[in-house]
From TrEMBL, chain A:
UniProtKB keywords: FAD, Flavoprotein, Oxidoreductase
FAD-binding PCMH-type domain location: 1-178
Domain of life per record: Bacteria
Gene3D superfamilies: 3.30.465.10, CO dehydrogenase flavoprotein, C-terminal domain, Uridine Diphospho-n-acetylenolpyruvylglucosamine Reductase, domain 2
Signal peptide: none
Organism: Pseudonocardia xinjiangensis
PROSITE patterns from the UniProt entry: FAD_PCMH
Protein's recorded name: Molybdopterin dehydrogenase
Translocase keyword on record: no
Entry annotated with the keyword Flavoprotein: yes
Pfam families for the chain: CO_deh_flav_C, FAD_binding_5
UniProtKB/TrEMBL annotation, chain B:
Pfam family, one: Ald_Xan_dh_C
Name this polypeptide is given: Xanthine dehydrogenase family protein molybdopterin-binding subunit
Keywords: Molybdenum, Oxidoreductase
Keyword Oxidoreductase applies: yes
Higher taxonomy: Bacteria, Bacillati, Actinomycetota, Actinomycetes, Pseudonocardiales
Amino acid sequence: MKPAPFDYTAPAELSDAVTALAERPETARVLAGGQSLVLEMHYRRERPALLVDINNVRELDTITADGDALRVGALARHRAFETPTVAPGALGRLLSRVSPLIAHPPVRARGTMAGSLAWANPVSEWCATAVALDAGIELTGPAGSRLVGAGEFFLGPFRTARQPDEILTSVRLPLLPGAETGTVGVGFCEQHRTHASFAQVAVVAVLTLRDGVIVEARLGLAGAADRPVRAHEAERHLVGREPEPDVFAQAAALAAAGADPLSEPHAGVEYRRHVIGVLVRRALVQAREDSESADFFSGAGRDGHDGWEAR
Amino acid sequence: MTGAGNYVGDLKVAGCLDAAFVRSTVAHGRLLAVDTSAAAEVDGVVGAWSAADLGDDLAFVPPFFPSAGGEDPRRCAALAVDRVRYVGEPLAVIVGTDRYVAEDGADAVRVDIDPLPALVDPGEAAASSTWLFDGVDNVATEMEFGTPIDDEVWQRAAVVVEGAYRQPRLAPTPMEPRAILAVPQPDGQLTVWVSHQAPHRLRRDLASALGLDAERIRVRVADSGGAFGTKSGTFAEYLSVVGLAVKLGRPVRWLEDRAETLSGSTHGRGQNQRVRLAADENGRMLALALEVDADVGAYPNTGFVAAETGQAAAGVYLTPNVHARIRVVVTNTTPTAPYRGAGRPEQVYAVERTVDLLARRLGMDPAELRRRNFIPPEAFPYHSPTGRVFDSGQYELALDKALELVDYTHWREEQQRRRRSGSERPLGIGLCSFTERSGLEQAPMANEWASVDVAPDGSVTARVGTCSTGQSHETVFPELVARTLGIPPGRVSLIEGDTDETAQGIGTFGSRSMQVGGAALHRAALELIEEARRRAGEPDARYADGTVITGQRSWTLAELAAASPEPLRAGGVYDTPAAFPFGTYVAVVEVDRELGNVRVLRLVAVDDCGVAVDPEIVEDQTRGGIVQGLGQALYEVMPYDDQGVPQADGLLGYLLPTIGELPPISLDTTVTPNPNTALGAKGAGEAGCIGTPPAIVNAVIDALGPQPAGTATDIGGMQLPLTPETCWLAAAGQEVAR
């Protein structure tokens, strides 16, 4: 398990990293946390001729509120999201529910959210989160930066819209809407074999409730297709209805029926499809409960004064 | 933890080369060509060899038990010749200035294999007309224990239950995979550093396989990151590394990595089992029949593991008619070998799961059913129908203690409460009562060498032929010798795992180190006291606290050692027969029926390993074994596809329980001393992974019940490991096919 020979550069400036990558785009890879790429290099399934290590690019190591979005730089590690104060309100609560279920502590200390999106494992928790929230994905290449929506970014297992000469420099997660639109509740459930395992299925649920009725529903699924997907049919079913068990069960059935999970040695397709339904229902229940407690605590999260600090 | 350990990978040797292996990616096929020419051209590569390149230098793995008649038709070459028989089989070895270039060289080797049908299941392999070895079929050994049971016994019995179970292949997965470093000296001596359980046997085998003089080989066991049975062999890779070090006259090291160990290193378990159990209307067992197809993998070097399953067949129960038929079958998979438990977990699982089936059939409490059938304490030494002699046991005592510790009545009530509520997660309680064998019954290996020396400064050196691979010998053996001699433990140092320093040794496996090696040290220390008295001139003198006290004066051991040029020493080879530790484990689980997830709420283990010399070390052995047992019950399996390709090449595919999966564990003991040694210790290394899997599986079945009344078979039911999918299918009452 030793990598094949490769060249290595670790510039301190983003522009130098972009230039280095652009010189050999087809054979170079970008190194951030390295928790997937380096393992694959050790197996020699990945054989980059050049590694562009961006860990010295300080400007990428930031998490900031930027207008109506949280801008997560490419070097923000998974563990930065373990506490709800990482972002205001419902977004912070959601991220802090997702992060602790990503692999184990050493991986969370090195791996990055942006790296997970760039790697595009179909069972990645962050990828499901990104599609659920319609995250913006910032790609920086020789011609400058562009923003791609998460819905268009993922093309298949480990395939994305990133061009070989582009670096995924930040992820923009919308701050979940405040008091005018309603109360937001978030839920996250996943099925994994051990705490060190990838998810078999993961479900992100975000419900916006007004006057006891669901006005917006977002369901992001990992492990339900060859890429992270929204459960659009289930979402449409939820909107305009009350957050009742029957409604959740119907939405869960729609999500499961619409899924096209891949098989793997530890679980067949039918089991995974079944799990999607169970977890969608449970994540929706969590989201409803979360919205109730968010309401109960005098809407502190909605005002943005719940201890969140800009970083 | 100090970070001061010295593993084979830590040793600094000038000019050391690293080896890497090219391994087969095809399970079965004709090996048409292995072209190493491009590898030899890679910068930094010193040489690359296939079997053909080695010619007459090609070595063969010596058989574990040498056979009487000529060349073994199923022998294993250091590098494959003509045929490949499993994915992971070494085809070529590349030696380079470091591991990176050695792997670059391995990349450049071209291999041409013409595939043959792959045989993955031992039952299918036994019946197949495709033979792995020319001229001999796929059944390597057939064994019978006990006498066949008359049909009349089954017909007369009030109840007969029958189960069919699969023991999946497990990867032992020590933290440190295999490791070896061969250092030839200019004077013709050869030092072999290795992570190993039996250095003397390795030395003998290396000499015979490579045509070397055993007297000139020094095998030294470095600090070891675990073994669990998978480091007891003389492996094909070791023959290549040592042979090339000698051929090149340079040090060569091989550190097996995680990717290659999962299919390159020996696996454990791997049995298809069929059990039939008859009882009268009161639940008294009348007959037990066990049939096993044991999957020994591609090369049947160590088929004796399955013999243990057969010899132990009836377990802790007084069953008059017992018969076991064992077939050891070759398949196109990684060879199996002893893995912690080595034949006992397989036997205990087969019987304990069937005993629970019998309890359900009879509508009887499974604890009560066990109680009625235990071999009673007064029956020992007990001669079993399968020809085994059990030394001592108090099985009911261990059961009672376990039931009390877990609070069995409470959990049975909680189980009923949840069943009535209908909305809560179902709860189940599972039992496993077992006895296991520690040490060996085979006379040539039922002994260990030990010596105790006193230096003129009073320091004591203990030497023993066992070999720690993580069992804390460094702590407990000096403790034992110091306690026996009545001196502070700090005065005693231990030497083991070095063939120049220990005259001989059988090694560490089968939970034998304390039972056999410790007993040997204990006896050597007692003999040393006799020798000290003799030197003091009064064989009947009092001895206490490292001092011989005669009427007029006293002599310390140091004084006695200094008084004569003749070393103050005692030692030799001491016999200790096999012993039979036992216990009862109880698991309490709840099952998320929707997802099939099992949560272990309690795991209680009551073990009896005789006298525990250091109870803390024994507890840690038990805990470690329990975690491996938890792995076997719920997570671990080396999956193969139909082509014989393993579906896990890392620990994301081969699932080990992590700290997050650990249940609350409660331990207790009973103490039934080993009647055959003064020390009284039985083995304690393997019980945890023997008692745990059946307890958990029985608990899950109990949770998912109640079964339809009168169910007499458990065929096509849940198989190990109990994945969420398996439990979901069982909970939904669907056929469990996977």
